[in-house]
Amino acid sequence: MKHLxxxxxxxxxxxxxVTLYLSTTLWRSFLTLIIGLGVSITGRTQTLILADRVFxxxxxxxxxxxxxxxxxxxxxxxxxxxxxxxxxxxIRTKGTLLPGLIEGHSHLLLYxxxxxxxxxxxxxxxxxxxxxxxxxxxxxxxxxxxxxxxxLGTEGAGYSDVALKxxxxxxxxxxxxxxxxxxxIVSTGSYGPKGFDSDSKIMLGAEPADGNELIRVVRDQIGxxxxxxxxxxxxxxxxxxxxxxxxxxxxxxxINEVTRSSGRVMVCHAKxxxxxxxxxxxxxxxxxHGDYLDDEIAALMxxxxxxxxxxxxxxxxxxxxxxxxxxxxxxxxxxxQKKQGFKIAYQAGVTIGMGGDVGVYxxxxxxxxxxxxxxxxxxSLDVLKAATSINARMLRMENQIGFxxxxxxxxxxxxxxxxxxxxxxxxxxxxxMKDGVIYxxxxxx
Length: 445
Ligand SMILES: [Zn+2]
What we know:
Elements: H1 25-42, E1 46-55, E2 60-69, E3 72-78, E4 89-99, E5 101-106, H2 118-124, H3 127-143, E6 146-151, H4 160-169, E7 177-180, E8 185-186, E9 207-208, H5 213-224, E10 229-232, E11 234-235, E12 244-245, H6 249-260, E13 266-270, H7 273-282, E14 286-289, H8 295-303, E15 307-309, H9 312-321, H10 333-348, E16 351-352, H11 367-375, H12 380-394, E17 412-415, E18 429-434, E19 437-441
Parallel strand pairs: 1-4, 5-6, 6-7, 8-9, 10-13, 13-14, 14-15, 15-16
Antiparallel strand pairs: 1-2, 2-3, 4-17, 11-12, 17-18, 18-19
């Protein structure tokens, strides 16, 4: 291994960057005493990371040090200014320290459709089986450096996401911090699985509701543990199976109003222009997929402060499951269209989040979306921002995660190489910490 840290202890001289601004030695001794007591009495663990590069959620810094005390980041700054407290574990690395990455669009209850078709996962697999699989997906996600996920629906597995989140929060299983949708909402008749005799009662991948019934369903989903309300503003139920709006503008406004009054937000699956327009005007905070995004929609997203999740990786994966060999065969029209929409949004200055619809492709391969964002023309540093600070703002958790700043949660990842030069470096994960707990440490190997 090239970049081994030296796990040594050093005697504290200066504790935090703050002490630099303290003029008297008296103050300095006082601070040293306080923090010294913190270590000896409460037994709080301290880790000092000395990295060649630190990406703080917005900018890349050279030769920075980051001090972690218990589950918080307590000091950040130039290596020369931050010294290790007594008994601190020290990690030196030539790699890059990043805030824990945030997956903006996951389905931990799903797995790749080329292994088992979506219909079969929804209809033939018991929720208990799907949840058992999801525990493995959660672990793989965390070990890949993704310490938080926004999970956009269980697709027929009820509120298994709420239960999974609880098991992770209680420390029963390793996994990312989860922000969950629960069942999600569709309009009657739009969503699948489809194609069965109308006499048979077929369960759906989300909960159907219409008109005033939406009030009860939104409230019920909130009561069951949904952190936000996810709806399908359109679906491929047009006469030629094209994407057509599923809810009226009034229905969308009603969903949004009921959702907002609980302090939550509405997020919308929308591919067609009309559905995107209705969703944005009704108050959606994010648009998922947005296949038919054009200049008009980009301007609307921008003026309404909507975050766009293009889910490039899902589109490319599905095309590959259907036989497309990237680089060999002609590019499918859907992929070309995605590239076009992505460029329009990026050039227009739309806020673009990182969320690939992972589950369509394997959990733990979350970096695929980041690679495609770079391939489709986004600067690597902007991709890193999307997966950290931008996604944290989208989750309204920017005061806890997505940044490396004193006071923020110790969600940290070390990767080999420099992802601001080549985004694929985020795949070379060496070390993962979530909420102050180390879940992966390849330095020891
Ligand atoms: Zn999705």
